[in-house]
């Protein structure tokens, strides 16, 4: 069906594959049947809808398949059509090409949606494969990616995808630093100063702050202090938000929205029934089913578009987790690898982290004298240790109960635990590179002791 003359059939074939690729156990069967070589050419399909669904299917493959699958995708030359698609999207963004059809009165911008899928795919692959990162540098993809970032004021989802990609490609990639000229840095600074207060915008600013930390070597020494302070101010704002209260508030908002949606749909169905009597029941029902099928096949995103409250909470927890990870990196010579983060998130993370920290010659942690004045001052000015200390407490019990009894919200429990774990790791790092008083004196240490005792004796 991917080779079918009808663009609509090709689109539905891509959407069906996209849905199946969200199940890890079927991925090997698709890989064995050269799914990458089948879907790759469709990234440049004449139909924009096919391009989007093909990119979404490949995005799901890269996200759910892991490192080995991403390596296979690069071997199968996915980067050639992907880079071509990305550059074409970059040049077409200003054309504001909308769908000729409207879905419930909302125009769909195909170019921006295709760019979003393509950049997510690029992010996943570059994070897993050094060859992909080399191609990113060589082909000048940074310019195209930054051009997409300029849409942050009207398309925050696209901007978040770009920010995730930027943070991944700038980490330990000195060959890319020369590409961050004054114009590129101006784009990042503009996003950093965005005043919007939604959880998605908080995540966006946090990711951009992380990218700026990765490229700090391009910043003039005279501006480094103010830059570090700006970065930690963003992290402080993110960590200051109570995730538990946000979960309670957003869950209540979801209930209200769903109730209103049911009432609106009931009213719409009654109206449709009346129209069917006049216009012809069969023809109208066919249009309704087509619209429903089109919405159901929008499966390129692993989190459905109608879960916006859940997306907001997920964005906040991701922002807090990201901020805490970067703060640890600020205190370290070497960034913990993904495998180390997973190990440190296990039940014995404290012992393992301390053991690794003190291994002779590992150079993981700096001595107290090595923490720069800029970072140390920014930590204190933005109350970073205090905010981290607060995150070591157990999550709100009411919020946990909401997540436990709502299947779509249940994955948030893991994210809440990850934030708590990383907060503890941050405290370990800060205590090893800074003065104990930075935590706020005896009362703060007593609070920390209470949190730790709860952790030790917890059965959860």
From TrEMBL:
GO biological process: protein import into nucleus; ribosomal large subunit biogenesis
Record-linked InterPro entries: ARM-like, ARM-type_fold, Armadillo, SYO1-like, TPR_SYO1
Gene3D superfamilies: Leucine-rich Repeat Variant
Molecular function (Gene Ontology), one example: unfolded protein binding
Signal sequence, start to end: none
Family: Belongs to the nuclear import and ribosome assembly adapter family.
Protein name: HEAT3 protein
Species of origin: Pycnonotus jocosus (Red-whiskered bulbul)
Gene transcribed to yield this protein: Heatr3
């Amino acid at each position: 069906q991917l080779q079918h003359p009808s663009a609509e059939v090709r689109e539905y074939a891509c959407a069906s594959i996209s849905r199946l690729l969200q199940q890890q156990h079927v991925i090997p069967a698709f890989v064995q049947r050269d799914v990458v070589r089948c879907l790759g050419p469709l990234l440049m399909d004449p139909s924009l809808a096919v391009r989007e669904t093909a990119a979404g299917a490949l995005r799901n493959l890269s996200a759910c398949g892991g490192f080995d699958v991403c390596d296979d995708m690069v071997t199968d030359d996915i980067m050639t059509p992907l880079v071509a698609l990305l550059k074409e999207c970059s040049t077409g963004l200003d054309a504001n090409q909308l769908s000729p059809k409207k879905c419930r009165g909302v125009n769909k911008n195909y170019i921006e949606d295709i760019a979003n899928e393509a950049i997510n795919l690029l992010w996943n692959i570059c994070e897993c494969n050094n060859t992909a990162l080399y191609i990113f540098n060589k082909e000048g993809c940074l310019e195209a990616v930054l051009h997409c970032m300029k849409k942050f004021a009207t398309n925050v989802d696209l901007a978040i995808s770009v920010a995730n990609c930027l943070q991944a490609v700038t980490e330990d990639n000195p060959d890319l630093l020369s590409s961050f000229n004054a114009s590129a840095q101006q784009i990042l600074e503009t996003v950093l100063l965005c005043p919007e207060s939604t959880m998605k915008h908080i995540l966006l600013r946090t990711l951009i702050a992380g990218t700026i930390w990765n490229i700090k070597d391009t910043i003039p020494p005279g501006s480094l202090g103010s830059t570090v302070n700006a970065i930690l101010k963003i992290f402080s704002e993110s960590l200051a938000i109570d995730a538990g209260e946000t979960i309670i508030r957003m869950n209540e908002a979801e209930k209200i929205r769903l109730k209103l949606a049911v009432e609106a749909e009931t009213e719409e169905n009654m109206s449709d029934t009346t129209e069917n009597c006049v216009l012809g029941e069969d023809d109208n029902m066919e249009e309704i089913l087509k619209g429903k099928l089109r919405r159901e096949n929008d499966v390129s995103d692993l989190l459905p578009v109608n879960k916006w409250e859940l997306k907001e909470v997920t964005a906040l927890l991701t922002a807090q987790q990201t901020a805490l990870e970067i703060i640890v990196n600020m205190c370290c010579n070497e960034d913990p690898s993904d495998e180390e983060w997973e190990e440190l998130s296990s039940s014995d993370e404290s012992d393992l982290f301390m053991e690794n920290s003190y291994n002779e010659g590992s150079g993981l942690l700096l001595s107290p004298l090595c923490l720069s004045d800029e970072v140390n001052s920014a930590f204190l000015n933005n109350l970073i240790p205090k905010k981290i200390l607060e995150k070591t407490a157990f999550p709100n019990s009411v919020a946990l109960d909401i997540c436990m009894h709502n299947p779509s919200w249940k994955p948030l429990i893991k994210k809440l635990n990850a934030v708590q774990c990383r907060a503890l790791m941050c405290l370990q790092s800060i205590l090893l590179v800074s003065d104990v008083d930075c935590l706020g004196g005896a009362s703060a240490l007593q609070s920390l002791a209470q949190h730790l005792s709860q952790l030790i004796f917890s059965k959860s």
